[in-house]
Specification:
Elements lengths: L2 H15 L7 E5 L2 E9 L2 E7 L2 H5 L16 E5 L2 E5 L4 E5 L9 H6 L8 E4 L5 E15 L2 E11 L6 E3 L15 E3 L15 E4 L3 E5 L5 E7 L2 E9 L2 E7 L2 H12 L12 E3 L7 H14 L5 E4 L20 H10 L3 E6 L2 E2 L6 H7 L23 E2 L5 H14 L7 E4 L12 E2 L2 E2 L7 H16 L7 E3 L11 E4 L7 H16 L5 E2 L1 E2 L23 H4 L5 H13 L4 E3 L13 H16 L1 H14 L4 E2 L1 H4 L13 E3 L3 E3 L9 E6 L4 E4 L5 E3 L2 E6 L7 E4 L2 E6 L11 E7 L4 E7 L13 E8 L4 E3 L6 E3 L3
Parallel strand pairs: 17-18, 17-29, 18-19, 19-22, 22-25, 25-26, 26-27, 28-29, 39-43
Antiparallel strand pairs: 1-2, 2-3, 3-16, 4-5, 5-6, 6-7, 7-8, 8-9, 9-15, 10-12, 11-14, 12-13, 13-16, 14-15, 20-21, 23-24, 30-31, 31-32, 32-37, 33-36, 34-35, 34-37, 38-39, 40-41, 41-42
Length: 764
């Protein structure tokens, strides 16, 4: 393809992919064109290209906002151009015409006319500077294109967070090399690329390029972004507090809907329930034991063969009847639906003839990959709107029509790695990270038409910019059932939620096959002798599973899963069962608190599981604490992630006093304390000046839950908005629902907004 045609097509594609935008101001810097586009007083987009049309084109996939220059002024002088609002100032430096290059520059310096710029916040403090940009020509998948990038200045005390899901187990991204691409086989666990990074200096950057991207935050005094394919650099800068930055992200890419209330209860899955009989027996046992449960999951290979999009009648003779039974018990269901098709399946020839599959360089449907163990099956091309529509309609008619409530869209990386292959919209290299947005959003659009006033819940294994608007519950993929994996989950989740994805979780217990022996050298804290059928001689696994469940109680979603013979609360021994049952009940008691946070996330874009640096920006000690976090405004959670551990050092951030959740003992902030962590407790603290509503015991969220008590942790004035609605419909988007504003006056010791007989003021 000629470069001229490539650039013309690129500009057209970008304009088609973005919402209609107001005109962009384009500045000429000696042949480097700089597009400046404003979206809110604290949001500005910068585009750099050598083609004026590309600099003037709108943003790419994932963005839904329209530009808005309200509140901005623009002035130009011999020093450059200033775009000024009440929240930020963008200054694009005037650049002299480059002088003749030196001998070294002829061979080793970029040939682009230079561009540099600075961003200041509302106080006039510089928070970001771009010092250079790059376009290095080369060929990718037959296209003459470029590697594109930009370089930003950093400061010695700057810290970075976000960039999706990277499971190396480190919170602060400073000094690291982040390979931002969807990668199921990443050694530490699947990576998910969300090119959105926050700095503790009061800004966030959203990088507008879906190709494989590498980011080097604060390496050799600069932060470098480099994308493998592109003809321009495009990025957004959002200034403000973390909450203001997340609000900006939501404005640009979409609001996070409130999931159905059932999503906040216990979700039970396993790899896999092989029959209708198993599903019903597990649901019956939960009912008999009176352990709260909301959702049963039917995982993969419920089909007769991959791509049949059917339900095997030998295993599930009456799926409609099964779902009716679950619904009568107050339960709902999720079923796994894959985008893969065997050549021998009933739909393969139809999809192949319509061109609905991912294709190789010869234009033929790609069947499997030679370097993967799962080498069979073609991938439906969800960048093709006709293929998306076909996929949803077949899933609706063949599967969901049996009464299943929600889909599990697995393999959304996609599992057929698209490098060197081709989507409908272009090469897999150019659109490397885009598939999960297109695939899941296509299904979500179909669900809205199919069930116009019912919320979506979609289990999804990968994401891209904007995926939070689809109703997805995201999880960390097929992780190992090990203490090491558990430990890495905590900072992994905190960076994923920092990336604008409030609903993240993991497979409680780890997904991969459970080794039937252990390398642990310490005596287990729980008796494994009555769990041999599940754990074999893996003596410490009941302890690991219990610790994981305790952590999961304080996650946005709580879902049991795993490739083992049994995966239910009672499958790991009587001692483990008693503790997990206790935490299961606690989870349901906390649903009014958690559900109120869900409404706040919908309204503001802010996640409610957050690293400590967010809520305590003036405490430098919390910058890289990745094994503790805030769960809503009240709870500080410090999961136990080491075998045989019965006490843990916990840092209590400065700026607040803290109550031990289990003992009500009060501590001053700004200190590390050693906390008892017997096997039935993980360290949990409540910030002084907190209001925590406690729900009555219920079997599932299908039952209307009363408020049993309202706990007040004194020490400062406090506010809490208690929210409730029907838990199922989209009426909350029309303003329906009940909001009760609670206020604690610490001086008068009075809680307003609630009946006094519900109030429980912690006095110890």
């Amino acid at each position: 393809m000629h470069l001229k045609h490539l650039l013309t097509g690129m500009a057209a594609g970008l304009l088609a992919a973005s919402a209609l935008a107001e005109p962009i101001k384009v500045l000429d810097r000696n042949g480097s064109y700089v597009g400046v586009e404003t979206y809110a007083p604290n949001i500005v987009r910068v585009t750099l290209a050598t083609d004026r049309n590309l600099a003037a084109a709108g943003p790419g996939y994932g963005f839904i906002a329209k530009s808005d220059d309200k509140g901005f002024s623009h002035k130009s002088d011999d020093k450059g151009d200033d775009f000024v609002s009440s929240s930020l100032t963008l200054h694009v430096n005037a650049q002299r015409w480059p002088s003749a290059p030196s001998m070294g520059e002829r061979y080793f310096a970029p040939s682009l006319p230079p561009v540099s710029l600075q961003v200041k916040n509302a106080k006039g403090d510089q928070v970001l500077s771009m010092n250079g940009w790059e376009m290095a020509p080369y060929e990718v998948s037959g296209e003459q294109t470029y590697q594109v990038g930009a370089s930003f200045g950093t400061s010695p005390d700057e810290h970075f967070y976000g960039l999706g899901q990277n499971q190396e187990g480190i919170l602060d991204l400073r000094g690291r090399a982040i390979d931002c691409k969807h990668w199921y086989d990443a050694p530490h666990g699947e990576t998910v690329c969300v090119p959105f990074m926050l700095s503790n200096k009061g800004y966030g950057i959203i990088w507008d390029n879906p190709s494989a991207t590498k980011i080097y935050p604060a390496v050799n005094g600069r932060t470098l972004w480099q994308s493998r394919v592109g003809e321009r650099v495009s990025y957004f800068v959002i200034t403000g507090t973390p909450d203001e930055i997340w609000a900006g992200y939501a404005k640009l890419t979409g609001k996070t809907p409130i999931p159905p209330k059932a999503a906040f209860g216990l979700i039970q899955s396993k790899a896999r329930y092989a029959s209708q009989k198993e599903v019903e027996e597990v649901a019956d046992t939960y009912q008999a034991k009176k352990y709260p449960l909301d959702i049963m999951v039917v995982d993969w290979f419920h089909w007769t063969r991959m791509g049949q999009m059917d339900i095997d009648p030998a295993q599930f003779p009456d799926p409609t009847g099964m779902n009716k039974k679950l619904h009568a018990m107050g339960l709902q269901s999720i079923i796994s639906i894959w985008p893969r098709y065997e050549t021998a399946g009933r739909y393969y020839n139809e999809l192949d003839s319509k061109g609905y599959f991912l294709k190789n360089k010869d234009g033929k449907s790609q069947d499997g990959l030679p370097f993967r163990s799962d080498r069979t099956g073609a991938l439906i091309d969800s960048t093709n709107p006709d293929a998306r529509k076909w996929f949803f309609e077949k899933a609706r008619d063949n599967i969901l029509s049996h009464g299943f409530d929600y889909p599990w869209l697995d393999e959304t990386e996609p599992d057929l790695v698209p490098d060197g292959l081709f989507f409908k919209i272009g090469s897999g290299d150019r659109y490397r990270n885009l598939y999960p947005l297109m695939h899941v959003e296509g299904f979500a659009d179909g669900l809205r038409e199919y069930r116009p006033n019912k919320r979506s819940l979609i289990l999804a294994r990968a994401a891209y910019l904007g995926s939070q608007r689809t109703g997805g519950l995201f999880w960390s993929s097929d992780i190992q059932p090990s203490w090491e994996a558990l430990k890495r989950q905590v900072p992994t989740g905190l960076n994923m939620t920092a990336s604008g994805f409030a609903y993240w979780g993991n497979d409680i217990g780890g997904w991969q096959w459970l080794p039937q022996t252990t390398s642990a050298t310490k005596a287990p804290l729980l008796d494994p002798s009555d769990a041999r059928e599940t754990v074999g001689q893996n003596h410490d696994y009941p302890e690991l599973h219990t610790r994981w469940f305790q952590y999961g109680t304080f996650l946005p979603t709580l879902r049991l899963h795993g490739d083992r013979k049994h995966a239910e609360i009672w499958a790991f021994g009587k001692e483990a069962e008693a503790i997990m049952a206790k935490y299961d009940r606690l989870r349901y008691q906390l649903i009014p608190y958690i559900y109120s946070q869900a409404k706040r996330t919908y309204d503001t874009g802010s996640p409610f599981m957050r690293a400590l640096w967010v809520d305590f920006p003036n405490d430098p000690k919390v910058a890289n604490i990745g094994d503790q976090y805030m769960f809503g405004p009240a709870f500080l959670v410090a999961p136990v992630t080491e075998q045989a551990q019965t006490e843990k050092d916990v840092y209590l951030p400065a700026g607040a006093d803290w109550y031990n959740f289990w003992t009500n003992e009060k501590f001053a902030g700004g200190q590390t304390i050693k906390v008892a962590a017997p096997i039935d407790q993980i360290p949990v603290f409540v910030k002084a000046g907190s209001i925590v509503p406690i729900g009555a015991d219920i079997q599932s969220t299908a039952t209307k839950q009363a408020i049993a008590s309202i706990k007040v942790y004194p020490g400062a004035d406090a506010d809490f908005t208690l929210y409730d609605d029907d838990g199922v419909s989209l009426d909350y988007q029309k303003g329906k629902g009940t909001s009760t504003k609670l206020h604690w006056n610490n001086s008068s010791k009075v809680l307003s907004g609630a009946s006094s007989n519900l109030v429980n003021v912690i006095s110890k």
